[in-house]
Structure formats: C-alpha cells, structure tokens
C-alpha cells in the first residue's frame, strides 16, 4: 500500500508539471479560440533564452528578466506580424499560423543561443525529502513539491485575472467572436498581445521547471505532448481545468505504468511496459465520448 | 568586346590555377546523410563535424588517399527516416562512380536503407547501430554493423559487471531500462541470454518515447532493489534517467549505459546527478589522441574546420566521428591495394574493402588513432570485425576510461545473429553467399 501511495503522489506531482505547460495552451485558446501548436516551442525558447543569456555572463535573476522581455517581445511580435492579418479568419487559419510559428521558433532559438543540451540550476535539488523518506519510506521530491506550489500560485492568479479584471472579461469576449468584440470597442490587438505575453510568461515558468528537471534542450518541445490529454480532460478554456486534468493524467498514467503491464504479461506473455506514452491519450479519448467539452470546459450549444 | 573578354577569361583561368591549393588525380565521393538540426542535432553536429574534419585532414596532410581527393556532400535528415531515404535517393546518383561508406548515425534510417543500398550496390556503414544481424555478411553483403553491435555491447557490459563481482553474477539482480523502440529492444535477446548463462535475475523496464518522464519506472526500480541498472537510453531519456536515479537514491556508479548514452551531451544537462555514471564506448574522449590534436592544428589552422564551435573538438561524439572517418579512409586504402593505387573505388569495390579490413593496433598508432578504435578484422561472415568496447565514467567534468577493451561473448551472441539473418534470408528469398568462397 505504501508503494501505491508513493506512485500516486509521484504521479500527481508529475501531473502538475504537465499542467504548467497546459496552462499556456488554455490562455491562448481562451483569447483567440485557437489551439496554439507553438506552445511547446515557446517553452523551449523561454528556457533556452535563460541558459543562453546566463552563458553570456548574466546571473540567473537577470537572465529570467531578460527572457521574460524576450517572451513579451515575441508575444507582441506574434500579434503584429502573424495574428493581426488573420482577424476574423476561420480558426484553422490561425492554427496553421501557429504551426508555422513552431518551425520558426525551433529554427531561430538554437541559432541564437546554440543547440547543445545544457543544465539549468535554479537552486532546487531534485532529491527526496529526508523526513518523508525516513518516516514513511516514500520518495517525494522537494523539487516536485515546489513545482506544485508554483503551479498553484499561477493558476490562482490567472483564474482571478480572467474572472475579475476588465482585460480578463475582454479576453473571453474576444474568444467568443472576434468581430463582435471589435464592434463593441474591445481593442483586439492589445488583448492578443497581452495574452501572448502572458502565455510567454507561463512558458517561461514551465520551461524553467522542466529545464531544471531534465536539462534545457530541444526535447522541451515534446512537453506539449504531455499537455494535450490534460487539455482534453480539463477543458481547453479552463485554467483550473488544466490543473485538475494534469493531476488526473499524471496519477493515472503512473498507476497504469506500474499495475497494468504485469496483468497483461500474465495474460498474454511478452513485455507490455512503456504504456504511459499512449495511455493518457486513450484515457482522454474515452473521456471525450462522455464529456466532449472536458471537465471544466464551456459547453457549446448552437441554435439550429 | 571580344578583345576585352578573351584576356579577362585567360586572366581568370590563370588566377584560378594559382589559387587552387592542390591537384588530385581523382575524387572519392562520400554521400553523407547527416543531421545537425532538430531534436538530436547537437549529437549530429559533433559526429559529422569530426567525420568531415578527418576527411579534410587527409586531403590537407597527405593530399588525399594516394592522390585521390576525398569529397562529400551532406544532406540534412533531421534524424527522420523519411528524410533519410530522400537524402539517400538524392545523393546516390553522385555515388555511381565512386562511393565511400554511407554513415547515417541512425538505426531507423539504416533499416529503411538496408534493402535499397544492397540493390544500388552502395555500402552502408552502421558503426554501433543499425540492423545487427547484418554481422552475417553472407545475407547482408552491403550492410556493415562495424566495430560493435547492441548485443555484443550488452554482453560486454555484463562481462564488466561480472568482473567487478569476482566473476560471479549468480543471485544478482540487473534491471535493463530501455527506450521502448527497436533500438532499445535490440539488446534484450543478449541480456536474456546472459541472464540465463550467468544466473542473474533480469528485470526489463521500458520507457516510452521521448522518455522525459520516468517517475514510475524509477519507483519500480527502487522497489526491485537491483544491484545494477543497464541502461539503453536516447536523447532526453538519458538526462531524465540520471536525475530520476538521483531522486530515488540509486547510486550512479551502478548504472552502465550503452554508447548512445555516454557523450557529454548526455551527462552535462543532468549536472551533479551524472557524477559516477558509466557508459560503454569504443573511442575515448579528449585531445590527447594524436590525430585529434593534429586535426585541430592542421585543419583548423588552415581555416577549414567544419565546426563553428571548436569546443566540441575532443568530445566523445566528435572523436567518434573521427573514428568513423578513420575506418572509412582505411577501407579506401585497403580497396586501393586491390583495385589500383590512386584510383577511386566504386560501391562494389568499397564493399570488398569493408569486408576485408584488418586494422591493427600498430596501424592505429601509425595514423595517430590509438584508443579511437579497437582492432578490426572483418570478413564475409563477420561484418562487425571487433565486438569490443571500453567502459568510461563521468567524473563530473570529463569522461575517464575505467576499463581496457572488453569483448562481448561472441560464442553466445553471434549465433543469434546468424539465426536471425537466416530467417531474414528466408523471408526475402535471398540465397546467402558461400563465405568460404569469398576472398
């Protein structure tokens, strides 16, 4: 039973890491109704900016500030040069633009900062908490707990921002209908620039946590793969949904990885491990059949 | 107009003749499907940088191989199988007259090319990767899994562990943690054979691609309490494993990885978590290898270095690229001994050369490549030619060799290749060559 809880808690904490990436997707989707294919690349760009600037001699705090400036400039640039031309176009056009953006970032970022995998030391060692290890013989990582705290703060701030600020309400209006939002005087361009800037900040936080955990390298773009089932489960438009979805995906994939393969091996022989690559997608697919809008997503009803 | 034009053309021709650095009797062309961008670009930059630097070095230092200039063309594969095939198709036309061995540095691309290259009679070199039953050259005449294979490497790692344990592994437990792909699965058969022979318990734990999340696997390892973890990772999976091992308190000096997990790119991102970790290799790192130091002097001194970042010179993968080029150039020398000095080799001739290599320790010393390669002697029924690796350990700043050459259990492993090759021949309707008649 001890082992079960160890896996469960480890999974929940991993899920928080997925949710950090998923948050960026949610922000863009809420503001423009488009799935931002470039979110994984933005995570890579943000983390690479930090280590790249540190290699030029800057301390961590300065590198983080400058990386935030880069991400903000990137957000404004994206609005000005990519999205502005696509106002009121079908969502698929915006989606295609984000695919282009992905390749642009994946090419540009290593050109500026180099492509070698590098370590990012943010001062938190990824080691078990000795007290929990000694008393309950369970490995709970200090790093993962801090990441969970960071995610909780981010979610709270973003949820309050969307719910209670004018910009937050304007964001939701823009997501519903670009043209209608424009017609009542909502400054669409400003809204998009702000939201891409905030998504850049979320990418920076996610990039730093993932980069500190596994090193800063191209594979950070793959973190997006972990965020997709989280979004399907939590809903594309819900900030708290990203967290809840992350927790469910994280816990279920870890438990599945541990407990399903032995059963399958007993039944069919062979080796059935390594299922956490596809298991979350199957779970999300099953969930789609029951609740297509996700746990916290907005139910979309069209008048016939 | 004519009056002006003629002297101008003549002057240009004279100038070109004057600035041409050297003249060559002929060219030996290398088609290079390489990767320098994308997820594994950093690995490719170092490897192909070393490879091309050595070709340049031979051109500059020795005026080519017996006067034959080494030329090449790269094509970016991004480590993508489809692009690898596209590159091969694009480059093969240029390799009709003369063809160096094709190094794809990718098991997936090698698998995709293995039939095509045999049809086109272009030799495919798979140093330490690729289809391993191609060791049996009677079925795979144009494929060369040179130096070592995944299976022989796994067997050598087990031998290393066995030696550390007084020659006895009975009752020990070894976890085989692997990338859940063809690459990771290749060595399972060898690990199972070794487990059965040496009576240790083998626990197999796969990791789904890309391997950037391994919490569950390492909690399982913690529960299993193994004596060693043999590790077959790739890319981000390597750093993640080292960090996760630190998290669950598994000692890194009980983790031994394959050569895909043993470069600077694999350990530096893991920081202190990598200290003490060991991995197999067939080439040492560092600039103390004479040919590496000389390349820096000659090639970079002439401003012809392939790398923008000179910091990569002497890294494990750079030196491995040089080792691949040394082997390829030695094959050209061998081929020229048979087919005529100063003449480029076509694909069929290069195939013969690769199948009749005999690179001794003395020869390696002569070319300044001691410790870049083990001794290699290939034949029709042994396209591997060595099967030896060294074990190196990361001390936190550099890789340090901690063993001499260790050969895998050939008597145990090679019959597995022959059985697999036989099956392949049956499936494809191939009549194997009679190796006793090949010379």
Chain-wise SSE layout:
The complex is a heterodimer of chains A (304) and B (439).
Chain A: H1 2-32, H2 39-55, H3 60-83, H4 91-113, H5 130-136, H6 142-164, H7 166-176, H8 178-183, H9 188-214, H10 223-234, H11 239-268, H12 279-290
Chain B: H1 2-19, E1 26-34, H2 41-62, E2 68-76, H3 81-92, E3 102-103, H4 107-120, E4 124-125, E5 143-144, H5 150-164, E6 173-179, H6 182-186, H7 188-198, E7 201-207, H8 215-224, E8 228-232, H9 236-248, E9 255-257, H10 264-267, E10 278-281, H11 290-300, H12 316-339, H13 347-355, E11 358-359, H14 361-366, E12 376-377, E13 388-394, E14 399-401, E15 406-407, H15 410-428
Parallel strand pairs in B: 1-2, 3-4, 4-5, 6-7, 6-8, 8-9, 9-10
Antiparallel strand pairs in B: 10-13, 11-12, 13-14, 13-15
Could you tell me the CATH topology label of the largest domain in chain B.
Rossmann fold
Count of runs of 4 or more consecutive helical residues of chain A: 12
* Total number of beta strands of chain A: 0
How would you name the CATH homologous superfamily of the largest domain in chain B? Response regulator
**Global shape of chain A:** globular
Question: Largest interface here, residues on each chain?
Answer: A-B, 48 and 41 residues
Mean pLDDT figure of chain A: 88
Structural class of chain A: mainly alpha
Q: What's the assembly state of these chains?
A: heterodimer
Please compute the radius of gyration of chain B using only Cα atoms: 23 Å
Q: Write down the Rg of chain A.
A: 20 Å
| Shape, principal axes of CA atoms of chain B | globular
Strand-residue fraction of chain A? under 5%
Major beta sheet summary of chain B: 8 strands, mixed
Low-pLDDT segments, ≥5 res of chain B = 1-5, 11-22
Q: Could you say what the CATH architecture of the largest domain in chain B is? A: 3-Layer(aba) Sandwich
């Amino acid at each position: 039973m001890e082992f079960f809880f160890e896996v469960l808690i480890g999974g929940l904490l991993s899920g928080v890491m997925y949710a950090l990436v998923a948050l960026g997707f949610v922000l863009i989707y809420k503001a423009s109704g488009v799935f931002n294919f470039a979110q994984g690349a933005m995570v890579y760009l943000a983390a690479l900016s930090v280590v790249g600037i540190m290699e030029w001699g800057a301390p961590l705090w300065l590198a983080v500030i400058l990386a935030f400036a880069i991400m903000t400039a990137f957000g404004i640039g994206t609005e000005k040069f990519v999205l502005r031309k696509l106002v009121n176009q079908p969502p698929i056009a915006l989606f295609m633009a984000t695919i282009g953006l992905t390749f642009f970032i994946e090419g540009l970022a290593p050109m500026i900062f180099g492509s070698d995998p590098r370590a990012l030391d943010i001062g938190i060692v990824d080691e078990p908490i000795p007290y929990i290890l000694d008393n309950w013989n369970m490995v709970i990582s200090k790093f993962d707990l801090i990441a969970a705290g960071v995610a909780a703060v981010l979610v709270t701030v973003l949820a309050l921002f969307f719910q209670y600020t004018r910009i937050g309400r304007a964001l939701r209006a823009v997501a519903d209908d670009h043209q209608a939002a424009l017609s009542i005087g909502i400054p669409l361009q400003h809204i998009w620039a702000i939201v891409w800037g905030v998504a850049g900040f979320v990418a920076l936080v996610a990039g730093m946590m993932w980069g500190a955990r596994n090193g800063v390298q191209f594979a950070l773009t793959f973190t997006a793969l972990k965020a997709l089932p989280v979004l399907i489960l939590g809903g594309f438009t819900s900030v708290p949904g990203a967290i809840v979805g992350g927790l469910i995906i994280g816990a279920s994939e870890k438990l599945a990885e541990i407990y399903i393969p032995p059963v399958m091996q007993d039944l069919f022989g062979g080796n059935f491990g390594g299922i956490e690559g596809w298991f979350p997608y199957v779970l999300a697919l099953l969930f789609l059949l029951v609740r297509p809008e996700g746990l916290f997503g907005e139910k979309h009803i069209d008048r016939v | 107009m004519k009056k002006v034009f003629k002297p101008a053309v003549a002057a240009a021709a004279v100038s070109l003749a004057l600035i041409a650095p050297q003249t060559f009797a002929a060219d030996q062309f290398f088609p290079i499907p390489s990767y320098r961008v994308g997820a594994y670009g950093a690995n490719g930059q170092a490897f192909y940088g070393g490879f091309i630097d050595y070709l340049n070095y031979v051109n500059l230092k020795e005026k080519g191989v017996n006067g034959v200039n080494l030329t090449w063309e790269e094509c970016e594969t991004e480590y993508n199988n489809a692009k690898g095939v596209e590159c091969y198709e694009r480059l093969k036309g240029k390799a009709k007259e003369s063809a160096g061995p094709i190094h794809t540095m990718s098991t997936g691309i090698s698998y995709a090319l293995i039939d095509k290259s045999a049809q086109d009679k272009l030799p495919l070199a798979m140093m330490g990767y690729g289809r391993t039953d191609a060791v049996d050259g009677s079925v795979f005449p144009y494929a060369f899994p040179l130096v070592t294979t995944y299976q022989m490497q796994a067997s050598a790692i087990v031998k290393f562990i066995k030696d550390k344990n007084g020659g006895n592994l009975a009752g020990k437990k070894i976890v085989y943690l692997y990338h859940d792909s063809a690459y990771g699965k290749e060595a399972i058969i060898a690990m199972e054979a070794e487990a059965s022979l040496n009576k240790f318990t083998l626990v197999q734990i796969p990791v789904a691609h890309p391997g950037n999340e391994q919490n569950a696997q390492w909690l399982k390892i913690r529960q299993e309490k193994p004596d060693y973890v043999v590790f077959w990772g790739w890319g981000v999976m390597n750093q993640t494993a080292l960090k996760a091992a630190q998290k669950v308190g598994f000692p890194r000096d009980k983790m031994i990885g394959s050569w895909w997990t043993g470069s600077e790119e694999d350990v530096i991102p893991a920081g202190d978590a990598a200290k003490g970790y060991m991995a197999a290799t067939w080439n040492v790192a560092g600039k103390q290898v004479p040919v590496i130091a000389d390349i820096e002097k000659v090639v970079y001194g002439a401003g012809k270095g392939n790398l923008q970042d000179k910091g990569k010179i002497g890294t494990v993968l750079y030196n491995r690229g040089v080792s691949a080029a040394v082997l390829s150039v030695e094959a050209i020398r061998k081929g020229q001994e048979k087919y005529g000095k100063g003449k480029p080799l076509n694909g069929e001739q290069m195939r013969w050369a690769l199948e009749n290599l005999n690179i001794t320790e003395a020869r390696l010393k002569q070319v300044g490549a001691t410790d870049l390669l083990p001794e290699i002697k290939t034949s029709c029924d042994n396209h591997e030619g060595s099967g030896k690796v060294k074990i190196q350990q990361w001390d936190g700043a550099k890789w340090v060799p901690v063993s001499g050459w260790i050969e895998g259990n050939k008597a145990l492993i090679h019959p597995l290749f022959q059985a697999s090759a036989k099956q392949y021949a049956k499936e494809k309707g191939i009549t194997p060559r009679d190796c006793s008649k090949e010379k």
